[in-house]
Write a sequence for this structure.
């Protein structure tokens, strides 16, 4: 254990690991994406289905990834190579590592928007807007300015690299213990402010009182996609984080805690968004522009709205940061393990690659026609990257992790790792059934759905 701590790092405490892993899962998917997807799919009915899929799909795959990581104490590529050296399973890890670099490149662009909006609200850029059209114009001006989009992309990757360079215990764990409580406190304050607005009751009813007649095949597909997207499964993130876990750690307890905190944050985020929307008589199904276009127009209409708005975008920025840390850590761990690079060298070089890859995404909002509308894909560069590396790669990776545990490495071997040192896994038969049958089938269905309907998340 001492050798591992010196060369790779190890979590210093259980709470540190849970906070770091929860931070990896808690991201834009919870605070930016979850509210608008819920709004488009019936509110409370969607929330109910989403929680169900977290339990029967998300949690089993999360347990599988943590188990692979702790058993091998390797990055995603090294983990599959260690378990089956002469097989092609290492390609699943390769997919995860490459996807993380690509995902960081465009994810940091959106995260940079939230940082930019935090400063824009503080300096009063939204004080004079009177409608959603005014807010939309501000968003267009901001995102079409390459100085802002590239600048905030660089700033966000730089901040992420600074934390990852500090290592597992002194960097990622230390900052997770700081960032996660701040994030949670901000979320609670904003939720209280939102539900106390006049007219917020209708929003609470929409969000918390399910109408199951609104459930459709689309609702089911979107809920399953959100569950995978929210937990960041299929990218090797949790395999990497699991590789730093002590053999004494109770994996099931940790996995359950991570799912709980991830879901709790998403639920509370809805308590921030929907009461405010209904209080201002605005459409909850506004779509991806909900946070950056619709909500700023609300801030001018409520008491202390600018403080409310600044707090919201600070919250989104912190959530994104806790996620980009894990996204960067995965390829860094690969080069530390497999290529014997120093952590500093790996962090710097991969961050530079991600930044360069991110520039076309940063320029895809009108700064140049070259990246704003790709003829082959009929969409902007960032949208294309999100579909390929934020949807397809994630779903493919999660599918192969479930198949690997269920049919290649085997339930018996995985369970032996989970039950090390006398730890009991009371629901192992249920987990085995879910990971072997329900998870792969459900993931294939959702993948087929987005291919056929082009309903990208």
């Amino acid at each position: 254990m001492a050798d591992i701590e010196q060369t790779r790092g190890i979590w210093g405490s259980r709470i540190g690991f849970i906070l770091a892993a929860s931070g990896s899962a808690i991201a834009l998917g919870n605070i930016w994406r979850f509210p608008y997807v819920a709004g488009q799919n019936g509110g409370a009915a969607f929330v109910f289905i989403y929680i169900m899929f977290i339990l029967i799909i998300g949690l089993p795959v999360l347990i599988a990834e943590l188990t692979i990581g702790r058993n091998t104490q390797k990055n995603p590529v090294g983990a599959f190579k260690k378990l089956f050296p002469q097989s092609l399973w290492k390609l699943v890890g390769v997919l995860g590592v490459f996807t993380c670099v690509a995902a960081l490149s465009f994810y940091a662009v959106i995260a940079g928007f939230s940082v930019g909006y935090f400063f824009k609200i503080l300096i009063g850029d939204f004080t004079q807007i009177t409608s959603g059209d005014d807010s939309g114009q501000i968003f267009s001006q901001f995102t079409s300015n390459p100085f802002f989009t590239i600048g905030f992309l660089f700033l966000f990757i730089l901040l992420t690299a600074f934390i990852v360079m500090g290592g597992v215990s002194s960097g990622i764990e230390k900052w997770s213990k700081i960032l996660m409580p701040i994030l949670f406190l901000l979320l609670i304050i904003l939720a209280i402010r939102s539900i106390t607005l006049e007219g917020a009751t209708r929003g609470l009813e929409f969000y918390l009182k399910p109408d199951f007649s609104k459930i459709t095949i689309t609702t089911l597909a979107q809920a399953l996609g959100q569950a995978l997207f929210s937990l960041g499964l299929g990218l090797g993130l949790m395999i990497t984080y699991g590789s730093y876990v002590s053999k004494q750690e109770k994996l099931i307890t940790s996995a359950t805690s991570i799912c709980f905190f991830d879901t709790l944050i998403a639920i509370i985020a809805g308590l921030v968004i929907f009461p405010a929307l209904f209080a201002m008589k605005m459409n909850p199904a506004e779509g991806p522009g909900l946070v950056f276009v619709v909500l700023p127009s609300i801030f001018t209409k409520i008491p202390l709205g600018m403080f409310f708005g600044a707090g919201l975008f600070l919250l989104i920025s912190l959530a994104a940061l806790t996620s980009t840390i894990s996204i960067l850590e995965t390829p860094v761990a690969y080069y530390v393990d497999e290529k014997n690079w120093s952590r500093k060298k790996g962090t710097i070089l991969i961050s530079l690659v991600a930044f360069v890859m991110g520039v076309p995404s940063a320029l895809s909002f009108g700064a140049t026609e070259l990246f704003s509308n790709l003829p082959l894909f009929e969409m902007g560069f960032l949208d294309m990257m999100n579909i390929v590396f934020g949807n397809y790669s994630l779903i493919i990776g999660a599918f192969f992790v479930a198949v690997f545990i269920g049919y290649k490495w085997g339930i018996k071997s995985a369970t032996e790792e989970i039950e090390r040192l006398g730890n009991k896994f009371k629901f192992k038969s249920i987990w085995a059934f879910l990971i072997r049958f329900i998870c792969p089938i459900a993931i294939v269905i959702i993948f087929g759905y987005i291919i056929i309907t082009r309903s990208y998340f």
Q: What stands out?
A: The chain has one domain: 2-453. DSSP finds 20 helices and no strands in the chain.
